[in-house]
Design a protein that fits this description.
By secondary structure, the protein is mostly helical. The protein has one domain (29-103). Helices cover 74% and strands 0% of the residues. The protein has helices at residues 2-11, 13-47, 60-63, 76-103. Helix 2 (13-47) packs antiparallel against helix 4. The protein is elongated. It starts with a helix and ends with a helix. The model has no long low-confidence stretch (mean pLDDT 88).
C-alpha cells in the first residue's frame, strides 16, 4: 500500500508540494489557535495581579463553550507536536521541489 502512495506523490511532484503546503498551513492554524487559547486563559489572571481577589483558574473549554477545543494545543507537548507537523510540511515541500527539479 505504501508503494501506491509513494508512486502517487512521486509521479507528480506538485502533489507532494501541495500536500506539504497544506500540512504547513494546518500547523500554522493550530499554532495561531494555540496562542489565542493561551492568551484567552492567561490575560484574566494577569489583570487581577494587583488585586486581592484570587484569579480564577480558566480552562479553554470554559471560555470557548461552543467550540470543541480538543484540537487546540495548550501544553508544551501540543506545541511540540504542532512544530513537528510544521517541519513535516516543510520537508514535504522541499522534497517535492527537489523531485520536480530532477524530473525536468
Amino acid at each position: 500500500m505504501f508503494e501506491r502512495i509513494e508512486e502517487y506523490y512521486l509521479s507528480e511532484p506538485k502533489r507532494l508540494t501541495s500536500l506539504g503546503q497544506t500540512i504547513l498551513s494546518a500547523a500554522m492554524a493550530l499554532s495561531i489557535a494555540g496562542v489565542y487559547g493561551y492568551l484567552v486563559t492567561t490575560i484574566p489572571s494577569l489583570v487581577r495581579v494587583g488585586t486581592k481577589v484570587p484569579a480564577p483558574s480558566l480552562a479553554l473549554a470554559d471560555v470557548l463553550t461552543g467550540v470543541p477545543t480538543w484540537w487546540i494545543p495548550e501544553t508544551f507537548l501540543g506545541f511540540t507536536l504542532t512544530g513537528a507537523l510544521a517541519v513535516a510540511g516543510v520537508v514535504a515541500v522541499r522534497t517535492g521541489r527537489l523531485y520536480e527539479r530532477y524530473m525536468k
